[in-house]
Amino acid sequence: MNRKTLLIAIMIFLIPIAFAGDFHVSVESINDRIYKNESASFNVTVENHLDTEQTFKFSSDVLWDLMSNPLSDYFSGMVIPAQSSDSTILQLIPPNRISAGPKKLPIIVTMQSTGTTDSEDVTVYIKSTGLEMQDYLPFVITTMLVDPIKIDPRGKFTVKVNLKNTNILDLEEVTIDLTTNSGLIHKKRIVPLGPLEERTETFVITLSPVTDPRNDVLIATVSTGDIVFSPDKENIEIVSYSAFVDTPITQKEFLKTKTKVVILNDGNTQGSELYKIPTNWFRSLFTITEPKTKLLTEEGNDYLVWELVLEPSQKIEVSYTENFRSLFALSIILIVIVVLYFLTRSSVIIKKKAEVLEIQEGGISKIKITLNIKNRTKSKNENIRVIEKIPNIANLVKEDYLGTLKPTKVMTHDVKGTLLKWNIDLLEGFEERMITYKIKSKLSILGALRLSPAVIKFKSAKGRIFISHSNSSTLNI
């Protein structure tokens, strides 16, 4: 850009500023509150700052009629000498179809020689006659937003009601009523709403957690005075839920634990639940429940289970008692029995074994009998006597008793049979002795032959006398 072009641009920019200072306009209201068939009056003063006489023209909103007093100031223009000022009265006449309320209008003054303008805004208040109220009834548009539509009564939800005043009436009291068809919700709020104002009111609503599930319609009704505007509606749903809350109380005693549980359906609908307590097969044997339970195995774990069905806010009490006292008592008894057994048992035992050696004429003829005597303690025992009885149908076979003890005494009776006795002076701890003898039947024995138990008598290291019996032995052929 060269210097000449820059100079021209600066001059163009400064021309409006220079013209703007050529004159000044001021306006003073004479009558600005009128009915629509009247005219508003304003005193307009124009100051000519130039050194030459100037003519000024007046104008305003094209829908309004404009007159001046004197009339020449409007039609011909107002002539103002250099460096002087002058005033005129302008009358603004409203159009036929105009509503009541404030109207903002410009009063425009144009300097005829340059076309430069200056303006001042004025406000004319159109007063209501009461005859045109039907044209200016309040009208508010209502819209509503509910979040969420599906409502969990345990939480909160919000309702936003948007109000839009579609005309210039100033509404001091606008009533918002939030209701539902079922009567569950009823909220009310009164707010002001200015001319053409739009505002949003937010309601945060909390319901009772046990509110019944239902489908409902939320209605936002807006009114002012006796005028009720078109309501906005929204379908909502109170969702169902069931929540079982348990409160356990445990009482512990010696080897006994009693637990009482109060279970509450804290929901808003009937609920069913398997209430489970961990256990195992062994513990369940010693557990008493009220009411009765079932044993359930789930994923390798055992549970005692109650099948519960509860209405909203209904409570039920269940209890279970783990009692190991009977097990403890049984253990004590077993321990006592074992201790008594070991205290009273014979330290020396005897076992009897019989085997057939000969068979004649299809029956048993000769039998070998072995008695095994064993000291099963580490203490020694003295004066051990072994007594054996041979039935009268058999006789003792006399032979050399090599490798075994020879009977100390043999007594024979025709009816009772033969009685054998052996004496063992000392039996060391864990020592064993074996006695063997043979008998021969007087006749061949067919069928079963039962040999009575052998008897052993001895004195323990503590001086106690014990008598012990062997097993009986039965031979069959």
Model description:
The radius of gyration is 63 Å and the shape is rod-shaped. It is mainly beta. Residues 8-20 have low confidence and may be disordered. The protein folds into 4 domains: 3-126, Immunoglobulins (Immunoglobulin-like); 140-238, Immunoglobulin-like (Sandwich); 244-326, Immunoglobulin-like, CATH 2.60.40; 345-476, Immunoglobulin-like. It contains 4 helices and 36 strands. The longest helix is centred in the C-terminal third of the chain and has 20 residues, at 325-344.
Q: Could you write a compact summary of the structure shown?
A:
With 477 residues, this protein is mainly beta. It is built from four helices and 36 strands.
Task: Describe the SSE topology.
Layout: H1 3-20, E1 23-31, E2 33-34, E3 40-48, E4 54-59, E5 65-69, H2 72-75, E6 78-80, E7 85-93, E8 101-111, E9 116-126, E10 140-147, E11 150-151, E12 156-165, E13 171-180, E14 186-193, E15 198-206, E16 214-224, E17 227-228, E18 232-238, E19 244-253, E20 256-265, E21 271-279, H3 281-284, E22 287-290, E23 294-298, E24 301-310, E25 315-323, H4 325-344, E26 348-360, E27 363-375, E28 381-390, E29 394-396, E30 409-413, E31 417-427, E32 432-445, E33 448-451, E34 455-459, E35 465-469, E36 473-476
Parallel strand pairs: 2-9, 11-18
Antiparallel strand pairs: 1-3, 3-7, 4-6, 4-8, 5-7, 8-9, 10-12, 12-15, 13-14, 13-16, 16-17, 16-18, 19-20, 20-25, 21-24, 22-25, 23-24, 26-27, 27-32, 28-31, 28-34, 29-32, 30-31, 33-36, 34-35
